[in-house]
Amino acid sequence: MKKDNQTIDDMKLKQLILLTGLLLINYADAFSQSVQCQKQEFVYKSVKGHDIKATIFLPASKEKLPVVIYFHGGGFIFGNRDQGLEIPLKEQLLANGYAVVSADYRLAPETKLDEILKDVSDVIKWIKQNGQQKYNIDTDKVAVAGGSAGGYLALSSGFNPDFMPDAIIAISTPTGFSTANIQMGDLTVLDQPGPYDIVKDSVVSYGDYDSRMDLWRFLGRNRLALFEIFGFDPAKEPEKLERYTLTNNVKSNFPPTLLIHAKNDRLIDLQQVNEFYIFLTEKQVKAELHLVENGHSSELIKQHPEVIEKIIDFLKTQMQ
């Protein structure tokens, strides 16, 4: 009898283990489904036969989807749509019901900033004109975001009255171009063998990350980065900077804006961001400034993951 009872107890234990395993599998499936998404690549424009692409991530939903278009950083010279968007940010946006677009744009020095800004407007235009039909996007709820140089591009999207986004998030963003202490480097350096050898006449929108970063460092070290981005020497022709200066182009109808910045950002001084925030409030633009201690762009998000919740709260408030 004792043996039979033991057999029954063993069977119950096996059933319990099996049931527990099934529950864990179902729980894991439910969790993974919360971050599962549909991923598609699309071409939003072509220039000189070169397709400029973006990737869209779509959460599982039958409802119309608000969307966040993200622009990567990289000093306008390096970076791409695959490596520029932080995965935790993307996943939390998806989990909260947002579609996410990670967009490439043409890179300097092959393309100058005025043309890069056209790419920013064109991808927003493409989403607003095609997003509902192709991806069930709510085209009345289009936000843009970006880190570092991508944050500047996000802010610049508010210049265009025809395809203005409904909200802007700028992380670790340069908000002013100054000619103070600018010294132009020697252009003959570009003729010497080195990182500049990768620069061709063709359009680049998705370059090799490491070689493009080497190019950015090379141009910065030789004081040629600004010349190669703008296509002119800003110290000699400061009046040409006006079309790129945020404070010269922001109107009172500028979209609600969230600025996220580190007090100890090693690349972008906090003072210029503070001044831009004050400028926005004086223009009566809805604006928030969220400060953390350290980090720049992607590393800021890694060091301060709580900013993702701040971003989502801001989007929910501004795109109801």
How would you sum up this structure, described in words?
With 320 residues, the chain is α/β, with parallel strands linked by helices. Helices cover 40% and strands 19% of the residues. It contains ten helices and eight strands. An eight-stranded mixed β-sheet has the order 1-2-4-3-5-6-7-8, sandwiched between helices. Helix 8 links the parallel strand 7 and strand 8. The chain is globular. The protein starts with a helix and ends with a helix. The relative contact order is 0.13. The N terminus is likely disordered.
Q: What is the SS-derived class?
A: alpha/beta
Span of the ends, CA to CA = 68 Å
Mean pLDDT: 88
Which geometry do the CA atoms define?
globular
Poorly predicted residue ranges:
1-34
* Approximate helicity band: 40-55%
Q: What does the largest sheet look like? A: 8 strands, mixed
**In which order are the strands of the major sheet placed?**
1-2-4-3-5-6-7-8
Query: What is Rg?
Result: 24 Å
Quantity of strands, as a count: 8
Order of helical and strand elements = HEEEHEHEHEHHHEHEHH
Count of DSSP H/I helices: 10
Hey, roughly how much beta strand do the residues contain?
Answer: 15-25%
